[in-house]
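Why run this: before we spend reagent on co-expression, it is cheaper to look at a predicted model of the complex and decide which construct boundaries make sense. The entries below are exactly what would go into the expression plan.
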Amino acid sequence: QSVLTQPPSASETPGQRVTISCSGSSSNIGTNTVNWYRQLPGTAPKLLIYDTNQRPSGVPDRFSGSKSGTSASLAISGLQSEDEADYYCAARDDSLNGVVFGGGTKLTVL
Amino acid sequence: EVQLVESGGGLVQPGGSLRLSCAASGFSFSSFFMSCVRQAPGKGLEWVATIKQDASEKYYVDSVKGRFIISRDNAQNSVHLQMNSLRGEDTAVYYCVRGGRSHYDYWGQGTLVTVSS
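The model came back. Tokens follow.
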């Protein structure tokens, strides 16, 4: 049972927009920034969004992040087949004095 | 180019010990927090430990406190994870990552630790 809650799966057709949610609490998302990671099959995760809504160099603007209260979201527009991957949210948790991850969302591009 | 290369994984019996190492290059190692994140087979990501730049502060997930020790050698640009009293639930790919507070901008390729008799 992960501290941050994500839907286990999501799907959408190419070219469309999909949103992945990440629900937490006041001790994590409510007070800290959120980071998002993408993991392609058989590879190490890669930072996708940092500080809730910032994109690292090289990440296209099709990817965007946001936060409201104790929930965060990752939006992917103009879906491409290569976006099929597992997506994870993460945040520092002040009560646990550590970092918590969501359980991950497997995105399927139909 | 930033590189993080893990080593030291393998098969170990329950109750045994293993020491993972991570060799860093391509950046000013002593300027960054370093962390370890693991992923059990077919499961999600789990933060394990973080060490501050000068090793003055170390943080651990509750499940490994008292069993794992994270350390670093800034002269050798390396970070280590000493894992003792290993359990089956510690079986995972262990990633060396640059950063702390959930912002991990570079990841190693991971090293597999299997705890089994």
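Chain A touches chain B through 28 residues (CB under 8 Å). The beta strands of chain A are 9-12, 18-23, 34-39, 46-49, 63-68, 71-76, 85-93, 98-101, 105-109. Bring this page to Monday's planning discussion.
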